[in-house]
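Hi F.,

I've been meaning to write this up properly since the lab meeting, where we talked about keeping a consistent format for the predictions we share between groups. The idea is simple: the sequence comes first, exactly as it goes in, then the C-alpha cells exactly as they come out, then a line or two of notes. No screenshots and no reformatting. I'm using this chain as the first example so we have something concrete to point to.
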Amino acid sequence: TSLLMKRLGHILAVSSSAIFLLLVFPLLCHSAIHDARQGRTDFAAFYSAAAFVVITLVLSVREILSHLYNWYAPSVQKFVVR
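Output, unedited:
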C-alpha cells in the first residue's frame, strides 16, 4: 500500500501542477492583459500578481512533496517541510 500511495501522490502532484500551470496561469495573464488594455491598471496588477503567486504555490508544494518522498534526514528536512 505504501508504493500505491506514493504513486497516487506523485500522480496528484503532477496533475495539479499541470492544471495550475497550463490552465490557471494563462487565464490570469489573459485577464491582466485585458484589464490593462481597458485602462484598469489596478485589476491588471492584481491578476499579474496572482499569476506569480500561483507559480510560487505550485513550486513550493512540489518541493515539499519531494522532501516528504525522499525523507532520509529528518533533523535537517523538518525545517524545509514546516
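Notes:
Residues 2-37 form the longest helix (36 residues).
The CA atoms of residues 64 and 77 lie 9 Å apart.

If this format works for you, I'll send the rest the same way.

G.
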